[in-house]
From TrEMBL:
PANTHER family: UDP-ARABINOPYRANOSE MUTASE, UDP-ARABINOSE MUTASE. Its EC number is 5.4.99.30. Pfam families: RGP. The record marks 152, 159 as: Required for activity. This is UDP-arabinopyranose mutase. It catalyses: UDP-beta-L-arabinofuranose = UDP-beta-L-arabinopyranose. Transmembrane segments: none annotated. GO terms for cellular component: cytosol; Golgi apparatus. It comes from Cucumis sativus.
Amino acid sequence: MAESASSATSMLKDELDIVIPTIRNLDFLEMWRPFFQPYHLIIVQDGDPSKTIKVPEGFDYELYNRNDINRILGPRANCISFKDSACRCFGYMVSKKKYIFTIDDDCFVASDPSGKPINALGQHIKNLLCPSTPFFFNTLYDPYRDGADFVRGYPFSLREGVPTAVSHGLWLNIPDYDAPTQLVKPLERNTRFVDAVLTIPKGTLFPMCGMNLAFDRDLIGAAMYFGLMGDGQPIGRYDDMWAGWCIKVICDHLGLGVKTGLPYIYHSKASNPFVNLRKEYKGIFWQEDIIPFFQQVVLPKDCTSVQKCYIELAKQVKDKLSKVDPYFDKLADAMVTWIEAWDDLNPAGAPAKLPNGKA
């Protein structure tokens, strides 16, 4: 069983990195071993850099802590969040691979309705290697899946689809709820397995969850910035959603696709709703301004790269959202710093080179 799972999952093993943010020993990897062992792991240790993080034997990995981030990025290190899972985006920056899969350390292998373990990484790879259909909705969902096709009335001129930049997976057991919903539904669990993948239509935003996510780093990596969250910031738990809103308007502008649905993982741990409420409090109010902002964003035609789109987006964040709170002025500056750091470590046409032999 383990051997066949490993063989099936080793697709793209030289082109994909797995990024994991953590503050604890990574014992959870034992359950994922049949699926993850062929791949290179980038572990971003949050919190106290003097703490030793233990990784099970047999995994190929590199581990970065805050001291490494400060050393590699220097004065630009302040764009990477501290004491927040948003630190994971540093792993995206230092990766040298075309694809990234990121997962939280409280996520385990789920089972499908037949009881078979779900190869989440394998499904993400399928999603990323198949086109998306953001310009016209197919009522059989993903038309490229075995047993499906384009329905009658679907324009033939659009059936080629567009490249898929992002694959957004879902979760069984603990739902990804905000704090108020957690408080009123403390015992609710997601047991419903929906066997579907669909492309999110152009012009439609979505709340991206970073605990089970894959993307084409070459196509959209420079926009996968999880913002300024956690220690020293007035907000938390909006890191992945901020990145999701940014990447969606950029994907729409550049003609790229975002898929959501399969694969499922098993989310094992409910975070404390009272702690979450403190982190989310301002975001709950701010999102009523943030979402209309992203719904109305227009990127100029000369924004022909992800970096140009992101710099323009940062400019508009500063112009429009800094009126909501000075935090957004700081966030806009960090967005620019992120792109500068990304371009430093990822020069056009060359693999990233890190100082002091870290690679």
